[in-house]
Predict the structure.
Amino acid sequence: WLVIDRKVYDVSKFSKQHPGGSRVIRHYAGQDATDAFVAFHNDKSLVKKYLKSLLIGELAPDQPSFESNKKKSLLEDFRELRCTIEKMGLLRPNYIFFSLIFLHFVVLDAASWLTVWYFGISLVPFLIGIAFFTIAQIQMGWFQHDLGHCSVFGKPKWNRLLQIVVINVLKGLPASWWNHLHNQHHAKPNCFRKDPDLNMHPLLFSLGKTLSVEV
């Protein structure tokens, strides 16, 4: 069970079909998932249609709709800030910007191969080709990151389709693998055992006294 806008939903069965992955939604079992729900879903009216069949109740008036380890004033400030940002239109994508990003890393990627093909594999053209290729790959990573967050197009399916082209075809990595891990990271950032970015080997990487002891 989890809470969204003070309404309680049973997502036990639905979690297996959840487009964002089962772990993301299970990380909020027994918790208030309102802010994560707002952050992850652009078309909230569409998603709420699916929630209707999962509704099982509502929080009692005396029950807080936030975790006991969180400050209510901080949550309210964050929600107010998000509303302000949305009203200012700062979350609307700039299609010209993303088009130029896509065009420039495609050109760099092609230039890297053409440089080696035309000038051969002597040291200088090889290093130039590596430079072009490295910059292109880095930019592809950030571009597919925005696509994975469904931040480029209004409809999720177009974001997913272009993400597959960029990360699967151009970078050689599976989009499903990246989304599975990265969605968990943003759902529970820096939460030990829930954020995959913290699942590092304790002998090679650890952060702070608490995490070191817990590992």
